[in-house]
Each structure stands twice: as structure tokens, then as C-alpha cells.
Specification:
It is a single chain. The protein is mainly β and 130 residues long. The chain has one domain. Helices cover 12% and strands 37% of the residues. The protein is built from 2 helices and 10 strands, in the order αβββαβββββββ. It has a 6-stranded mixed beta sheet, with no helix packed on it. β1 and β2 form a beta hairpin. The longest helix has 9 residues.
Length: 130
């Protein structure tokens, strides 16, 4: 590899954001890393445990992101319970989800509801989760 190619690769910055979520089973916080793919496509490829204090200090989830959201094959699931899915509650916050589950309880606002497996989310606004 040429020196200029290596330099160019090192200078390329990834466009990523961290979504703040909460485990439906344990009520503990976690982050989901989304990386921008093609135009308006965001792909989750990593999840990690974190505390509310760290999330606030690091300002995770401090912007609204529009686009199409998906999960890579490498996505490990919720770090607390290994659920592979997520759902966005009407309160605007995100939680993990067992894909076989239709009845849910939001660990943020405690409301209960049903998940439509065909629904999609096109905007994530997570600035007030903590």
C-alpha cells in the first residue's frame, strides 16, 4: 500500500452516533453504536453496558438522527440480557426487545403496549434519555 493511500485511509472519519437504550429485563442502560452506511442508512454494529452517569458525561444521544436503521450480523444484542431487537416507545426512548415478544413494558416510562413487528423507525431523538 502506498504511503498516500494509508494516509488517506487514516484521515477518513467515520460518521457514528451512540443510541442510549435501557434493558427491558434489568432496567440497566446500554449504548448502541450506529455507523453511517449508504445515504441515510445507519447500521448498528456494537452494544455496550454503561451507567447513566457515563452516558450524561459523554453526552451520548445528544442529537436527532434521521434515516433507515438496521442491525449488522455482528451486532451482539443487549449487553445485559442478549435480546437482539429494540423498540422505540411512544415516550421517545429505546429499549431492548425479545423478537418473540409482542407485549412490552417500557423501562423508561413504565407504560405497557404491543409491538407491531412490521413497524419501522425513521428518526431517533435521544437527547433527553438520561
Amino acid at each position: 500500500m502506498k504511503d498516500t493511500d494509508l494516509r488517506r485511509r487514516c484521515e477518513t472519519r467515520l460518521n457514528v452516533f451512540i443510541l442510549l437504550g435501557r434493558c427491558q429485563k434489568t432496567d440497566r442502560c446500554f449504548g448502541v453504536r450506529f455507523e453511517e452506511g449508504a445515504s441515510d442508512e445507519w447500521i448498528a454494529d456494537w452494544a455496550f453496558a454503561l451507567t447513566e452517569g457515563v452516558a450524561g458525561r459523554e453526552r451520548y444521544g445528544q442529537k436527532n438522527v434521521n434515516g433507515n436503521f438496521s442491525f449488522s450480523l455482528e451486532y451482539p444484542g443487549c449487553p445485559h440480557c442478549e435480546n437482539m431487537g429494540t423498540f422505540a416507545c411512544s415516550c421517545g426512548k429505546v429499549s431492548c426487545l425479545d423478537a418473540r415478544q409482542q407485549n412490552v413494558r417500557c423501562p423508561w416510562c413504565r407504560s405497557k403496549g404491543t409491538v407491531d413487528p412490521e413497524s419501522t423507525v425513521n428518526q431517533l431523538g435521544v437527547g433527553t434519555d438520561v
